[in-house]
Amino acid sequence: MIPKDPVMLLSYINTQLxxxxxxxxxxxxxxxxxxxxxxxxxxxxxxxxxxxxxxxK
Length: 57
Description:
It comes from Anaerostipes hadrus. This is DUF4250 domain-containing protein. The protein has one domain (6-56). Helices cover 54% and strands 7% of the residues. The chain contains 3 helices and 2 strands. It has a two-stranded antiparallel ribbon. The chain is globular.
């Protein structure tokens, strides 16, 4: 289960991307997450996915 709090979610997603996944799409497929829902939650706290860095910043 992924964190519901946006700040905790940011930390969790970026850690997963850094340690286990080559792309955000791979992470979402593997964990059965809605890509748009996660992006929307993180954009609420000012973070967007940077594909070149493979992280939300």
